[in-house]
Amino acid sequence: MEKIIRSRTGAEISEADERQLLDTIRVWLRRDVEDKVLDLEHADEYPHEMVAQMKELGLFGATIPAEYGGLGLPAQTYAKIVATISETWMSLTGIFNSHLMMAAAVERFGTEEQKNRFLPRFASGELRGGLALTEPHCGTDLQAIRTKAVRDGDDYVVNGGKTWISNGIEGGAVALLVKTDTDIEPRHKGMSLFIAEKGPGFTTGRKLKKLGYKGIDSAELIFEDYRLPAANLIGGVEGRGFHQTVGGLELGRINIAARGVGVATAALNRAVEYAQIRETMGKPIGEHQAIQLKIGDMATKRRAAELLMLDAAMAYDRGERCDMEAGMAKLFASETALENATECMRIHGAYGYSAEFPVERYFRDAPLMCIGEGTNEMQRIIIARQMLARNPA
Ligand SMILES: Cc1cc2nc3c(=O)[nH]c(=O)nc-3n(C[C@H](O)[C@H](O)[C@H](O)COP(=O)(O)OP(=O)(O)OC[C@H]3O[C@@H](n4cnc5c(N)ncnc54)[C@H](O)[C@@H]3O)c2cc1C
Protein backbone atom coordinates (compact mmCIF):
# COMPACT_ATOMS: atom_id res chain seq x y z
CA MET A 1 0.00 0.00 0.00
CA GLU A 2 1.18 3.52 -0.83
CA LYS A 3 2.66 5.29 2.18
CA ILE A 4 0.96 8.52 3.20
CA ILE A 5 2.91 11.35 4.83
CA ARG A 6 0.90 13.61 7.18
CA SER A 7 1.62 17.15 8.31
CA ARG A 8 0.99 18.32 11.88
CA THR A 9 -2.24 19.95 10.68
CA GLY A 10 -3.47 16.63 9.19
CA ALA A 11 -2.78 17.44 5.52
CA GLU A 12 -1.60 14.44 3.53
CA ILE A 13 0.64 13.67 0.58
CA SER A 14 1.30 10.21 -0.86
CA GLU A 15 4.87 9.05 -1.43
CA ALA A 16 4.16 8.95 -5.17
CA ASP A 17 3.01 12.59 -5.18
CA GLU A 18 6.02 13.58 -3.11
CA ARG A 19 8.33 11.85 -5.63
CA GLN A 20 6.61 13.66 -8.49
CA LEU A 21 6.96 17.02 -6.75
CA LEU A 22 10.67 16.44 -6.12
CA ASP A 23 11.12 15.34 -9.76
CA THR A 24 9.44 18.55 -10.97
CA ILE A 25 11.83 20.57 -8.83
CA ARG A 26 14.86 18.64 -10.14
CA VAL A 27 13.77 19.30 -13.74
CA TRP A 28 13.45 23.02 -12.95
CA LEU A 29 16.89 23.07 -11.31
CA ARG A 30 18.51 21.38 -14.31
CA ARG A 31 16.65 23.46 -16.91
CA ASP A 32 16.52 26.96 -15.38
CA VAL A 33 18.98 27.19 -12.49
CA GLU A 34 22.14 25.06 -12.73
CA ASP A 35 23.93 26.94 -15.52
CA LYS A 36 23.12 30.39 -14.13
CA VAL A 37 24.29 29.97 -10.55
CA LEU A 38 28.00 30.70 -11.07
CA ASP A 39 27.42 34.12 -12.68
CA LEU A 40 24.62 35.24 -10.34
CA GLU A 41 26.55 34.09 -7.29
CA HIS A 42 29.77 35.88 -8.20
CA ALA A 43 27.84 39.04 -9.07
CA ASP A 44 25.87 38.73 -5.79
CA GLU A 45 22.80 39.38 -7.93
CA TYR A 46 19.24 38.70 -6.75
CA PRO A 47 17.75 35.88 -8.89
CA HIS A 48 14.52 37.65 -9.95
CA GLU A 49 13.73 35.19 -12.75
CA MET A 50 14.13 32.18 -10.46
CA VAL A 51 11.96 33.82 -7.80
CA ALA A 52 9.19 34.19 -10.40
CA GLN A 53 9.59 30.49 -11.20
CA MET A 54 9.53 29.58 -7.50
CA LYS A 55 6.21 31.44 -7.25
CA GLU A 56 4.87 29.28 -10.09
CA LEU A 57 6.08 26.15 -8.32
CA GLY A 58 4.16 27.22 -5.21
CA LEU A 59 7.27 27.29 -3.02
CA PHE A 60 6.23 30.50 -1.21
CA GLY A 61 3.22 28.60 0.09
CA ALA A 62 4.96 25.23 0.59
CA THR A 63 4.02 24.82 4.27
CA ILE A 64 0.99 27.16 4.33
CA PRO A 65 -2.27 25.16 4.64
CA ALA A 66 -4.27 24.62 1.44
CA GLU A 67 -7.28 26.52 2.83
CA TYR A 68 -5.13 29.67 2.64
CA GLY A 69 -3.83 28.90 -0.85
CA GLY A 70 -0.63 27.05 0.08
CA LEU A 71 0.59 23.52 -0.67
CA GLY A 72 0.23 22.50 3.00
CA LEU A 73 3.23 20.15 2.80
CA PRO A 74 4.45 18.14 5.79
CA ALA A 75 7.85 19.14 7.22
CA GLN A 76 9.34 15.90 5.87
CA THR A 77 8.46 16.73 2.26
CA TYR A 78 9.44 20.35 2.75
CA ALA A 79 12.84 19.34 4.16
CA LYS A 80 13.48 17.12 1.12
CA ILE A 81 12.64 20.05 -1.19
CA VAL A 82 15.03 22.34 0.69
CA ALA A 83 17.81 19.73 0.59
CA THR A 84 17.27 19.15 -3.15
CA ILE A 85 17.41 22.86 -4.04
CA SER A 86 20.41 23.43 -1.73
CA GLU A 87 22.35 20.82 -3.70
CA THR A 88 22.19 23.25 -6.62
CA TRP A 89 22.16 26.65 -4.88
CA MET A 90 21.62 27.02 -1.16
CA SER A 91 20.84 30.76 -1.42
CA LEU A 92 17.57 30.07 -3.25
CA THR A 93 16.16 28.24 -0.24
CA GLY A 94 16.68 31.26 2.03
CA ILE A 95 14.34 33.28 -0.17
CA PHE A 96 11.37 31.07 0.74
CA ASN A 97 12.62 29.58 4.08
CA SER A 98 12.67 32.90 5.93
CA HIS A 99 9.42 33.88 4.23
CA LEU A 100 7.73 30.69 5.45
CA MET A 101 9.02 31.29 8.98
CA MET A 102 7.14 34.60 8.91
CA ALA A 103 4.06 32.80 7.56
CA ALA A 104 4.33 30.07 10.22
CA ALA A 105 4.19 32.71 12.96
CA VAL A 106 0.85 33.94 11.57
CA GLU A 107 -0.45 30.43 10.94
CA ARG A 108 0.42 29.14 14.43
CA PHE A 109 -0.25 32.21 16.56
CA GLY A 110 -2.29 34.68 14.49
CA THR A 111 -5.98 35.47 14.81
CA GLU A 112 -8.37 34.12 12.18
CA GLU A 113 -8.63 37.64 10.73
CA GLN A 114 -4.82 37.84 10.42
CA LYS A 115 -4.61 34.41 8.78
CA ASN A 116 -7.24 35.39 6.21
CA ARG A 117 -5.60 38.75 5.57
CA PHE A 118 -1.97 37.61 5.25
CA LEU A 119 -1.63 33.91 4.44
CA PRO A 120 -3.13 33.95 0.91
CA ARG A 121 -0.81 36.84 -0.05
CA PHE A 122 2.17 35.02 1.49
CA ALA A 123 1.23 31.73 -0.22
CA SER A 124 1.07 33.25 -3.70
CA GLY A 125 4.37 35.07 -3.19
CA GLU A 126 2.61 38.40 -3.84
CA LEU A 127 3.80 39.56 -0.40
CA ARG A 128 7.18 38.06 0.50
CA GLY A 129 9.40 38.65 3.49
CA GLY A 130 11.28 37.20 6.41
CA LEU A 131 11.94 37.26 10.10
CA ALA A 132 13.39 40.40 11.72
CA LEU A 133 14.88 39.51 15.10
CA THR A 134 18.60 40.33 15.15
CA GLU A 135 19.88 43.82 16.04
CA PRO A 136 23.36 45.27 15.72
CA HIS A 137 24.19 44.57 19.38
CA CYS A 138 22.43 41.21 19.82
CA GLY A 139 21.55 38.00 18.01
CA THR A 140 21.64 35.05 20.40
CA ASP A 141 20.41 37.11 23.34
CA LEU A 142 17.12 38.14 21.74
CA GLN A 143 15.71 39.43 25.01
CA ALA A 144 18.24 42.28 24.76
CA ILE A 145 16.63 43.82 21.64
CA ARG A 146 16.02 47.58 21.79
CA THR A 147 13.56 48.21 18.93
CA LYS A 148 10.52 49.61 20.66
CA ALA A 149 6.82 49.84 19.77
CA VAL A 150 4.67 52.31 21.71
CA ARG A 151 0.88 52.16 21.49
CA ASP A 152 -0.76 55.27 20.02
CA GLY A 153 -4.49 54.92 19.30
CA ASP A 154 -5.08 52.18 16.73
CA ASP A 155 -1.35 52.07 15.89
CA TYR A 156 2.00 51.37 17.47
CA VAL A 157 4.88 53.74 16.76
CA VAL A 158 8.10 51.83 16.14
CA ASN A 159 11.66 53.10 16.51
CA GLY A 160 14.87 51.09 16.25
CA GLY A 161 16.85 48.98 13.83
CA LYS A 162 17.44 45.40 12.75
CA THR A 163 20.35 43.85 10.91
CA TRP A 164 21.24 40.76 8.87
CA ILE A 165 17.61 40.40 7.81
CA SER A 166 17.20 37.93 4.93
CA ASN A 167 14.86 39.26 2.19
CA GLY A 168 15.02 42.67 3.89
CA ILE A 169 15.37 44.60 0.63
CA GLU A 170 13.44 42.48 -1.86
CA GLY A 171 10.66 41.54 0.57
CA GLY A 172 7.61 43.66 1.31
CA ALA A 173 7.06 42.64 4.94
CA VAL A 174 8.73 41.06 7.97
CA ALA A 175 7.67 39.40 11.17
CA LEU A 176 9.12 42.04 13.46
CA LEU A 177 10.17 41.33 17.06
CA VAL A 178 10.00 44.44 19.28
CA LYS A 179 9.79 45.50 22.89
CA THR A 180 6.33 46.73 23.89
CA ASP A 181 7.39 46.97 27.56
CA THR A 182 11.00 47.76 28.40
CA ASP A 183 10.70 47.61 32.20
CA ILE A 184 8.94 44.31 32.83
CA GLU A 185 10.78 41.29 34.32
CA PRO A 186 11.40 38.69 33.05
CA ARG A 187 12.36 40.61 29.92
CA HIS A 188 10.64 38.24 27.47
CA LYS A 189 7.23 39.30 28.82
CA GLY A 190 7.78 42.71 27.24
CA MET A 191 8.32 41.34 23.73
CA SER A 192 5.77 41.28 20.89
CA LEU A 193 5.77 40.05 17.30
CA PHE A 194 4.09 42.00 14.48
CA ILE A 195 3.68 41.67 10.74
CA ALA A 196 5.25 44.89 9.49
CA GLU A 197 4.62 45.85 5.88
CA LYS A 198 6.88 48.41 4.29
CA GLY A 199 5.61 51.98 4.41
CA PRO A 200 6.60 55.47 5.60
CA GLY A 201 9.13 55.20 8.44
CA PHE A 202 10.23 51.64 7.53
CA THR A 203 13.27 51.84 5.28
CA THR A 204 16.11 49.51 4.36
CA GLY A 205 19.80 50.19 4.65
CA ARG A 206 22.53 48.66 2.55
CA LYS A 207 22.71 45.11 1.24
CA LEU A 208 25.33 43.54 3.51
CA LYS A 209 28.46 42.01 1.97
CA LYS A 210 29.00 38.37 2.88
CA LEU A 211 31.46 35.48 2.52
CA GLY A 212 28.81 33.29 0.87
CA TYR A 213 25.00 32.94 0.75
CA LYS A 214 25.11 35.44 -2.10
CA GLY A 215 22.29 36.54 -4.35
CA ILE A 216 19.80 36.71 -1.49
CA ASP A 217 19.74 40.09 0.24
CA SER A 218 20.79 40.39 3.89
CA ALA A 219 19.94 43.88 5.02
CA GLU A 220 19.65 46.47 7.72
CA LEU A 221 16.11 47.67 8.51
CA ILE A 222 15.50 51.12 9.96
CA PHE A 223 12.35 52.17 11.82
CA GLU A 224 11.80 55.87 12.42
CA ASP A 225 8.38 56.74 13.83
CA TYR A 226 7.00 53.92 11.72
CA ARG A 227 3.25 53.54 12.32
CA LEU A 228 2.25 49.92 12.59
CA PRO A 229 -1.48 49.04 12.86
CA ALA A 230 -2.34 47.36 16.18
CA ALA A 231 -4.30 44.86 14.06
CA ASN A 232 -0.91 43.45 12.95
CA LEU A 233 0.11 42.34 16.45
CA ILE A 234 0.27 38.56 15.99
CA GLY A 235 -2.41 36.95 18.15
CA GLY A 236 -3.66 40.38 19.25
CA VAL A 237 -2.09 40.24 22.73
CA GLU A 238 1.16 41.95 23.80
CA GLY A 239 3.97 40.06 25.53
CA ARG A 240 3.84 36.81 23.57
CA GLY A 241 6.46 37.66 20.94
CA PHE A 242 9.37 35.77 22.47
CA HIS A 243 7.32 32.59 22.86
CA GLN A 244 5.98 32.96 19.30
CA THR A 245 9.48 33.44 17.92
CA VAL A 246 11.06 30.56 19.80
CA GLY A 247 8.05 28.39 18.88
CA GLY A 248 8.92 28.82 15.21
CA LEU A 249 12.55 27.94 15.56
CA GLU A 250 11.97 24.16 15.46
CA LEU A 251 10.84 24.39 11.83
CA GLY A 252 13.61 26.92 11.19
CA ARG A 253 16.21 24.48 12.45
CA ILE A 254 14.81 21.68 10.31
CA ASN A 255 15.16 24.12 7.37
CA ILE A 256 18.81 24.73 8.19
CA ALA A 257 19.47 21.02 8.65
CA ALA A 258 17.98 20.45 5.19
CA ARG A 259 20.20 23.13 3.68
CA GLY A 260 23.19 21.45 5.34
CA VAL A 261 22.17 18.07 3.91
CA GLY A 262 21.93 19.66 0.45
CA VAL A 263 25.39 21.23 0.58
CA ALA A 264 26.93 18.07 2.13
CA THR A 265 25.37 15.99 -0.66
CA ALA A 266 26.60 18.30 -3.41
CA ALA A 267 30.14 18.23 -1.98
CA LEU A 268 30.07 14.43 -1.70
CA ASN A 269 28.75 13.94 -5.24
CA ARG A 270 31.35 16.27 -6.74
CA ALA A 271 34.11 14.53 -4.79
CA VAL A 272 33.01 11.04 -5.87
CA GLU A 273 32.87 12.15 -9.51
CA TYR A 274 36.23 13.93 -9.49
CA ALA A 275 37.94 11.06 -7.66
CA GLN A 276 37.19 8.86 -10.68
CA ILE A 277 38.34 11.37 -13.29
CA ARG A 278 41.53 12.83 -11.82
CA GLU A 279 44.57 10.60 -12.05
CA THR A 280 47.85 10.68 -10.15
CA MET A 281 50.61 8.05 -10.08
CA GLY A 282 48.92 6.27 -12.97
CA LYS A 283 45.50 5.70 -11.42
CA PRO A 284 42.33 7.63 -10.47
CA ILE A 285 42.80 9.36 -7.11
CA GLY A 286 39.72 7.46 -5.89
CA GLU A 287 41.91 4.36 -5.86
CA HIS A 288 44.30 5.90 -3.33
CA GLN A 289 43.34 4.91 0.18
CA ALA A 290 43.85 8.46 1.51
CA ILE A 291 41.03 9.68 -0.75
CA GLN A 292 38.83 6.65 0.03
CA LEU A 293 39.04 7.43 3.75
CA LYS A 294 37.71 10.91 3.07
CA ILE A 295 34.86 9.69 0.85
CA GLY A 296 33.91 7.03 3.39
CA ASP A 297 33.56 9.63 6.14
CA MET A 298 31.78 12.13 3.89
CA ALA A 299 29.18 9.60 2.74
CA THR A 300 28.53 8.27 6.24
CA LYS A 301 28.11 11.69 7.80
CA ARG A 302 25.90 12.91 4.95
CA ARG A 303 23.57 9.96 5.43
CA ALA A 304 23.50 10.44 9.20
CA ALA A 305 22.66 14.13 8.69
CA GLU A 306 19.81 13.20 6.37
CA LEU A 307 18.39 10.71 8.86
CA LEU A 308 18.59 13.24 11.71
CA MET A 309 16.80 15.77 9.48
CA LEU A 310 14.02 13.27 8.72
CA ASP A 311 13.79 12.21 12.37
CA ALA A 312 13.24 15.84 13.45
CA ALA A 313 10.79 16.52 10.59
CA MET A 314 8.75 13.42 11.46
CA ALA A 315 8.55 14.47 15.12
CA TYR A 316 7.46 17.94 13.97
CA ASP A 317 4.79 16.43 11.70
CA ARG A 318 3.48 14.31 14.59
CA GLY A 319 2.97 17.57 16.50
CA GLU A 320 5.54 16.66 19.17
CA ARG A 321 7.90 19.04 20.91
CA CYS A 322 11.13 18.54 18.94
CA ASP A 323 13.58 21.25 19.93
CA MET A 324 16.16 18.59 20.84
CA GLU A 325 15.68 16.62 17.62
CA ALA A 326 15.69 19.77 15.46
CA GLY A 327 18.77 21.02 17.36
CA MET A 328 20.63 17.73 16.77
CA ALA A 329 19.73 17.75 13.08
CA LYS A 330 20.76 21.38 12.65
CA LEU A 331 24.02 20.93 14.56
CA PHE A 332 25.11 17.72 12.82
CA ALA A 333 23.98 18.63 9.30
CA SER A 334 25.63 22.05 9.37
CA GLU A 335 28.93 20.71 10.71
CA THR A 336 28.78 17.92 8.10
CA ALA A 337 28.19 20.48 5.34
CA LEU A 338 31.30 22.36 6.47
CA GLU A 339 33.41 19.19 6.74
CA ASN A 340 32.25 17.79 3.41
CA ALA A 341 32.81 21.14 1.70
CA THR A 342 36.36 21.28 3.07
CA GLU A 343 37.15 17.70 2.09
CA CYS A 344 35.62 18.18 -1.35
CA MET A 345 37.92 21.16 -1.86
CA ARG A 346 40.96 19.17 -0.76
CA ILE A 347 40.06 16.30 -3.09
CA HIS A 348 39.80 18.79 -5.97
CA GLY A 349 43.26 20.23 -5.24
CA ALA A 350 43.77 23.56 -7.03
CA TYR A 351 40.46 23.23 -8.87
CA GLY A 352 38.72 23.25 -5.51
CA TYR A 353 40.17 26.69 -4.92
CA SER A 354 39.12 27.99 -8.33
CA ALA A 355 36.28 30.49 -8.61
CA GLU A 356 35.35 28.87 -11.94
CA PHE A 357 33.90 25.76 -10.28
CA PRO A 358 31.19 25.42 -7.61
CA VAL A 359 33.39 23.65 -5.04
CA GLU A 360 34.69 26.85 -3.42
CA ARG A 361 31.07 28.06 -3.08
CA TYR A 362 30.15 25.13 -0.86
CA PHE A 363 33.09 26.09 1.34
CA ARG A 364 31.82 29.70 1.56
CA ASP A 365 28.14 28.78 2.00
CA ALA A 366 28.50 26.08 4.66
CA PRO A 367 29.59 28.18 7.69
CA LEU A 368 26.33 30.17 7.64
CA MET A 369 24.44 27.05 8.68
CA CYS A 370 26.60 26.86 11.82
CA ILE A 371 25.49 30.42 12.77
CA GLY A 372 21.88 30.94 11.61
CA GLU A 373 18.73 29.90 13.57
CA GLY A 374 20.74 29.63 16.78
CA THR A 375 24.49 29.07 16.67
CA ASN A 376 25.83 25.54 17.02
CA GLU A 377 27.19 26.45 20.46
CA MET A 378 23.60 27.20 21.51
CA GLN A 379 22.32 23.99 19.89
CA ARG A 380 24.65 21.94 22.08
CA ILE A 381 23.31 23.72 25.15
CA ILE A 382 19.67 23.17 24.07
CA ILE A 383 20.33 19.47 23.43
CA ALA A 384 22.07 19.04 26.80
CA ARG A 385 19.29 20.82 28.70
CA GLN A 386 16.66 18.62 27.05
CA MET A 387 18.68 15.47 27.79
CA LEU A 388 18.82 16.44 31.45
CA ALA A 389 15.14 17.43 31.58
CA ARG A 390 13.91 14.29 29.81
CA ASN A 391 16.05 11.97 31.94
CA PRO A 392 15.64 12.90 35.61
CA ALA A 393 17.96 10.88 37.86
C1 LIG B 1 23.80 35.58 6.27
C2 LIG B 1 23.00 35.78 7.51
C3 LIG B 1 21.62 35.83 7.44
C4 LIG B 1 20.87 36.06 8.60
N1 LIG B 1 19.52 36.18 8.50
C5 LIG B 1 18.81 36.59 9.59
C6 LIG B 1 17.41 36.87 9.48
O1 LIG B 1 16.80 36.70 8.43
N2 LIG B 1 16.76 37.34 10.57
C7 LIG B 1 17.40 37.55 11.76
O2 LIG B 1 16.75 37.99 12.70
N3 LIG B 1 18.73 37.28 11.90
C8 LIG B 1 19.45 36.81 10.84
N4 LIG B 1 20.80 36.55 10.96
C9 LIG B 1 21.44 36.75 12.25
C10 LIG B 1 21.72 35.45 12.97
O3 LIG B 1 20.50 34.88 13.40
C11 LIG B 1 22.66 35.77 14.13
O4 LIG B 1 23.91 36.07 13.56
C12 LIG B 1 22.79 34.62 15.10
O5 LIG B 1 21.62 34.48 15.85
C13 LIG B 1 23.96 34.83 16.09
O6 LIG B 1 23.89 36.08 16.67
P1 LIG B 1 25.17 37.06 16.67
O7 LIG B 1 25.72 37.09 15.32
O8 LIG B 1 24.72 38.34 17.28
O9 LIG B 1 26.23 36.36 17.62
P2 LIG B 1 26.32 36.52 19.21
O10 LIG B 1 25.00 36.26 19.82
O11 LIG B 1 26.98 37.80 19.53
O12 LIG B 1 27.29 35.32 19.57
C14 LIG B 1 28.72 35.39 19.41
C15 LIG B 1 29.34 34.06 19.83
O13 LIG B 1 29.04 33.79 21.23
C16 LIG B 1 28.38 32.53 21.34
N5 LIG B 1 27.39 32.63 22.42
C17 LIG B 1 26.44 33.59 22.59
N6 LIG B 1 25.73 33.37 23.69
C18 LIG B 1 26.23 32.24 24.26
C19 LIG B 1 25.91 31.48 25.43
N7 LIG B 1 24.91 31.84 26.24
N8 LIG B 1 26.63 30.38 25.68
C20 LIG B 1 27.63 29.98 24.86
N9 LIG B 1 27.97 30.66 23.73
C21 LIG B 1 27.28 31.76 23.45
C22 LIG B 1 27.74 32.29 20.00
O14 LIG B 1 27.52 30.89 19.78
C23 LIG B 1 28.78 32.86 19.06
O15 LIG B 1 29.81 31.91 18.88
C24 LIG B 1 21.54 36.23 9.85
C25 LIG B 1 22.93 36.13 9.90
C26 LIG B 1 23.66 35.90 8.77
C27 LIG B 1 25.16 35.81 8.85
Rg value = 21 Å
Name given to the CATH architecture of the largest domain: Up-down Bundle
Which ligands appear in the coordinates?
A: flavin-adenine dinucleotide
Give me the side-by-side strand order of the main sheet.
Answer: 4-5-9-8
H/E element order: EEHHHHHEEEEEEEHEEHHHH
Assigned CATH superfamily of the largest domain: Butyryl-CoA Dehydrogenase, subunit A, domain 3
The beta-strand count equals 11
The helix content, as a percent range, equals 40-55%
Q: What's the quick description here?
A:
With 393 residues, the protein is α+β, with helices and mostly antiparallel strands. Helices cover 52% and strands 16% of the residues.
What key phrases describe this protein's structure?
393 residues, Butyryl-Coa Dehydrogenase, subunit A, domain 1, Butyryl-CoA Dehydrogenase, subunit A, domain 2, Butyryl-CoA Dehydrogenase, subunit A, domain 3, 3 domains, three-stranded mixed sheet, globular, binds flavin-adenine dinucleotide
Q: How is this structure best described in words?
A:
The model has no long low-confidence stretch (mean pLDDT 97). A 4-stranded antiparallel beta sheet has the order 4-5-9-8, with helices on one face. It has a 3-stranded mixed beta sheet with strand order 3-6-7. A two-stranded antiparallel ribbon has the order 1-2. The protein is 52% helix and 16% strand. The chain contains 10 helices and 11 strands. The protein has 3 domains: 4-124, Butyryl-Coa Dehydrogenase, subunit A, domain 1, CATH 1.10.540.10; 129-242, Butyryl-CoA Dehydrogenase, subunit A, domain 2 (Beta Barrel), CATH 2.40.110.10; 243-390, Butyryl-CoA Dehydrogenase, subunit A, domain 3 (Up-down Bundle), CATH 1.20.140. With 393 residues, the protein is an alpha+beta fold. Bound molecules: flavin-adenine dinucleotide (FAD). Flavin-adenine dinucleotide binds next to strand 3, strand 5, helix 9 and helix 10. This is 3-sulfinopropanoyl-CoA desulfinase. Its cofactor is FAD. Its EC number is 3.13.1.4. It catalyses: 3-sulfinopropanoyl-CoA + H2O = propanoyl-CoA + sulfite + H(+).
